[in-house]
Every structure is written in C-alpha cells, then in structure tokens.
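Repro:
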Amino acid sequence: MKKIFLFYLLSAIFLILFSCNSQNNSDEMEIDKALETQAIAWNEGNIEKFMNYYWKSDSLKFISKNGVTQGWTATLERYKKNYPDKEAMGFLSFQILSKQPIGKNYFVIGKWHLQREKDELGGYFSLLWRKINGQWVIVVDHTS
C-alpha cells in the first residue's frame, strides 16, 4: 500500500513539475516572438506597432539615462520625438542574455543595437513582462 501511495505521489509531483516547465517554455516562446515582432516593426519604421507589446496603461514605466517616463502615451511620444523618421530609427536588433520567471512575471535582460546610415548605437535593457488579458506585455523597461 505504501509503494502504491509513493508511486502516485511521485507521479503527481512529476506531472506538476512537467506542467510548470511546459508553461514556462510556452511563455518564453511568446516573449521571444513579441521581441522579434517588435524588432520587425521598428525596422519597418512603425513605432505604433512596436509599442503594441508595451502595457497600455498610465502605470507603464520607461527608464533611461534621461529619467523615468510614466505611461504608455508618454512613452510613445518619447519614441516619436527621439526617432522622428525611419532614417533616425535605423535597423534594430536584440540579443537576449537571460530570461527568468519571477512569480507571474518574466524578467528579461538583453543587449540592443541600432545601426543607422551615419552611426550606430547600442546598450543594455531589462524588461519586466506581465501577462495581462492573455498577452505578454512590458510593464517596466529600463534601457541604457
């Protein structure tokens, strides 16, 4: 009887761990796809489409060397001011350095590179992603 109980207990634990790992992989794949879609949108010169993966809320935070921008609309306006046209936007690429689940969120660290006709820029970012209404969105972006 103890062996049967132990078997069922271990089976249940295995299924729970497998299910959690499977969900994490699915979430990571969704976030990877979102970052890929963002880069494509940026490279098409479409800031609004790029912003689709930011939380459409006044609580969104974008942090850079210039300070904290609060809210989705203010972040969009910041991007439009700093990157007024496709030439200024250049070609964006990301390199993900780490992804880590933190509770119901994901913490992503990476490098960004922007190649433009006359120059290039680059730096690092950390993103806090949260699944809201079935979609992974960035709720905090710290880019330097």
